[in-house]
Amino acid sequence: MPEGVGEEGPLGIFGGTFDPVHYGHLRLAEEAASALELAAIRWIPAGQPALRDTPRVTAGQRLAMVRLATADNPRFEVDASEVTAARPSYTVPTLERLRSAAHCGGRRSLVLLLGADAFAALPGWHRWQSLFALAHLAVAHRPGFPLDRAQLPPELAASCRDRFCSTPAELAAAPAGRVVTFAMTQLAISATRVRQLLASGESVRYLLPDQVIAYIRSHHLYPEH
Ligand code: ATP
């Protein structure tokens, strides 16, 4: 481990609405952990998402589904702090809280995991330019969202230009500031599509874990209409 960087290995940070969690999320986290040599992945379900419509189910129910989906993976941990907070969820303040000494401190390598769609939307995020001082960004390819640098918003392309790297060692060597892309198994699954299928009474089997489907059924979430 390079001198000056935390000894525990890079920690993946995976935020999202998870409304509901599905296999696209799970494969992203699993493949990021392997490809980027992350010690663990911390899932952080958003409380009140800042940039989207009110979720269809409660924050507590989204959290419960993430817990069910991740329970049998020892590299996955679930952070309920955003779900229980009485404030909107923004990624930069969340990372600032994680950087406090009580959590990770300033030296540990933190790797924020994003799908290509979320990455391209970064310039709309609250204080997005501060992200690079707080964490590395690891961007997963996602069907329908090309990661061609020429097509990125110009301000994002300019901010990332000198930050791209390609090896896990480069992420481990500094606490923050690099950008890496990785090619995960392409799964055209979205929570939007899962909700649409549930609303029209169609099968969602094999798009998300059976335990999550059972939870959705027993709590009558995303009702048919
Ligand atoms: P919605 O359809 O409601 O917008 P979503 O399926 O995109 O939801 P989110 O909870 O918004 O799910 O996503 C959390 C993170 O996971 C985001 O960074 C998103 O880009 C990424 N992600 C979600 N699904 C996939 C997928 N199939 N492949 C790659 N990345 C994904």
Description:
34% of the residues lie in helices and 15% in strands. With 225 residues, the chain is of the alpha/beta class. It has a single domain, classed as HUPs (Rossmann fold, 3-Layer(aba) Sandwich). The strands form 2 sheets. It has a 6-stranded parallel β-sheet. α2 packs antiparallel against α10. The protein is globular, with a radius of gyration of 17 Å. The mean pLDDT is 92. The structure holds adenosine-5'-triphosphate (ATP). Adenosine-5'-triphosphate is lined by residues 16-19, 24-25, 28, 114-115, 117-118, 140, 142, 187, 189-192. The site of adenosine-5'-triphosphate (ATP) has 18 residues, from α1, β6, α5 and α9.
Give the key terms.
Rossmann fold, two-stranded parallel ribbon, binds adenosine-5'-triphosphate, 225 residues, globular, alpha/beta, six-stranded parallel β-sheet, single chain, 10 helices, 15% strand
Structure at a glance:
With 225 residues, the protein is of the alpha/beta class. The chain is built from 10 helices and 8 strands.
Question: What's the topology here?
Answer:
Blueprint: E1 11-16, H1 23-35, E2 40-45, E3 48-49, H2 59-70, E4 76-78, H3 81-84, E5 88-89, H4 91-98, E6 110-115, H5 116-120, H6 131-134, E7 136-140, H7 154-160, H8 168-172, E8 179-182, H9 191-199, H10 210-218
Parallel strand pairs: 1-2, 1-6, 2-4, 3-5, 6-7, 7-8
Helix pairs in contact: 2-10
Bound molecules: adenosine-5'-triphosphate.
Adenosine-5'-triphosphate is lined by residues 16-19, 24-25, 28, 114-115, 117-118, 140, 142, 187, 189-192.
